[in-house]
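Quick one:
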Amino acid sequence: MESIMDEEDKPTAEMTILEEVQDLFHFLHSLWGILAGVTLFFPLSAAFFSLIPVEYRWQTDDYMRGFGYFKPLLVVGLTTILIIFAMFWLVSHREQFRPRKRKIMQQRALRCFAVGIFSLILYLAAYEVVADEMNAREIFRGNPALIPYDLLLLVSYAGFFVSLTAAFMILGMVEYYGEKAKRTAV
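Output:
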């Protein structure tokens, strides 16, 4: 990823590990950090409330749909791990969230949100349309033709939640570090 920091934006002194941890906790305890952290629970809530269907193909009686090999708990767990990774990755690049770079970071958040919406549409389309095709071709359990379908579902499902989390984290960090810069300038 390209650096968007100017020389004058770089911190003048190295932060100690303790200061970095304190800074992270201050962010997470702020309103912006809480809102960004809530996105960690999106996959779990979607699974609990069936907002975004994530079921194992062999659980349904009407016709086959959903994952052929990956169980919902595996999909949600892997997605949650990817979200945590994205959160830590963004926090590790927090020096980019300087007030002067606000517009650039807002554009990145918008792109992340757009990628997330595209991933959701891809997931829902694959979930329904491809499932109908699999039923028509009578591709059932144990057939290796289900593996690419499962991978498409997994990547699009995880892509939606990770992109949504990144969008919220970026916006939250832009606001938090913008407010922090205003407080320290006064």
